Amino acid sequence: MPLVSLEPVLKTALRDKFAVAAFNPVDYASMKAMVRAAEEIDSPVIIQSSAKTIRYYGHAALAAWMRELAADSAVPVVLHLDHGKDMQMIRTCIDSGWTSVMIDASDKPFEENLQLTGQVVEWAAQAGIGVEAEIGEIGGVEEDLVVDEDSVTLTDPEEAERFCKALDLSAFAAQIGTAHGNYRREPSVAFDLIADINRRTGTPMALHGGTGLSEDTFRRCIELGCAKINISTNLKHVFIDSFTQFKADNPNNYEPLNYLSAQFDALKALFKAKMTLFGSAGKSAAVLASIG
């Protein structure tokens, strides 16, 4: 089926108390592993590209890969831009066939963030796709983003309410105690803040910094309204480690496809495990029903 918009996917997840995994692909094979994993357990999936990945492969290649993979699949697949900070890149993603974009102006003053996000929402509405936005910078390191974890402050729920009521957002990201990359210490997730923000806004929350959180933390966040959970660092580790482990186990094997096959299987196992943990297995029908 064609790629689908983020909005109906996350509305269904919020309503039915599950979350949809959002993975950052490294290449065509990792994208394919995401879709195949989703198919095997009948789960919706969000494939989200970073700005760095777009600069490496180009808009046309990524969009073409995803259109091909989604066309052959019966599960809902979203192509999402993660942490878009360049307005021209966001616009090009919309024009190139992305079905969701994130505008991350969280480092700007509130009013400027609101204005920039409003512009992206207007573009996205014309294309019939979803938008994710953020208030409160999320700390840590991911792709080109580096934010000192010790300098961040939790999102103000009153600002979150005002922001979400002013805009038609498919997802809202907030600083609730998580961080990108590997945690230097045990994260202190503000569960009360998640509940407060979701009560005020009714907008599906996107949980950034998912790598390293405990299963209990994931479940509590989902119950409180987190409908999209991002996994990037975990994927990178499996991508590299599965390749090098195959070499260690097979030092005389120089057939590249054997390495790629081992890597593909390891990634697919990771994706299926996360989707199952987040409760999205078997939820494709519910999502498709909401799309109509």
Describe the structure in your own words:
The chain is of the alpha/beta class and 292 residues long. The chain has one domain: TIM Barrel (Alpha-Beta Barrel). The chain is 52% helix and 17% strand. The protein contains twelve helices and eleven strands. It has helices at residues 6-16, 28-41, 51-57, 59-71, 87-96, 110-127, 157-166, 191-201, 215-224, 233-249, 256-277, 284-291; strands at residues 20-23, 45-49, 77-84, 100-103, 130-135, 139-142, 145-147, 171-174, 179-180, 205-207, 226-231. β1, α2 (28-41) and β2 form a beta-alpha-beta unit. α7 runs parallel beside α8 (191-201) and α10 runs antiparallel to α11. The mean pLDDT is 93.
Question: Could you name the key traits of this structure?
Answer:
292 residues, single chain, 52% helix, TIM Barrel, globular, eight-stranded parallel β-barrel, 11 strands, alpha/beta
DSSP summary: helix tally: 12
How far the N terminus sits from the C terminus, by CA atoms, comes to 13 Å
What's the β-strand tally? 11
Q: Note poorly predicted spans.
A: none
**Secondary-structure element sequence?**
HEHEHHEHEHEEEHEEHEHEHHH
- Fourth-tier CATH superfamily name: Aldolase class I
CATH architecture: Alpha-Beta Barrel
In terms of DSSP E residues, the strand content is 15-25%
Largest sheet: 8 strands, parallel, barrel
Which structural class fits the helix and strand makeup?
Answer: alpha/beta
User: How are the strands ordered across the major sheet?
Assistant: 1-2-3-4-5-8-10-11
CATH class: Alpha Beta
